[in-house]
Design a protein that fits this description.
With 91 residues, the chain is mainly alpha-helical. Helix content is 68%, strand content 9%. Strands 1-2 form a two-stranded antiparallel ribbon. The two termini are 24 Å apart.
């Protein structure tokens, strides 16, 4: 959840910077669209990496199955991640 919030805030900030600064430097409009597209496509990748890896004091380590404290988090992440693309088409 923290990764999704952090990514959302950072992506929003970068999109705001791109929409405000790019026209000032006469950078074409398609580049703003490209920045937003890259940010949107990067969101599920960031969630998948956050789901597969954990940051510990020893560094970034692969998630080990069978850890009782976090098994619930892993089981609920798969249905949520799979529901994201389908929720877009229902509105």
């Amino acid at each position: 959840m923290r990764v999704a919030i952090a990514y959302g805030v950072t992506a929003w900030l970068l999109a705001q910077i791109a929409t405000q600064i790019f026209p000032f430097f006469e950078i074409p409009n398609w580049s703003v669209r490209l920045v937003i597209l890259v940010l949107v496509l990067g969101f599920p990748i960031a969630l998948a990496l956050a789901w597969a890896f954990d940051i510990t004091p020893e560094g970034i380590v692969r998630y080990e199955r069978g850890v009782p404290n976090e098994s619930g988090r892993r089981r609920t992440a798969i249905p949520l991640l799979s529901a994201l693309p389908s929720s877009r088409w229902q509105h």
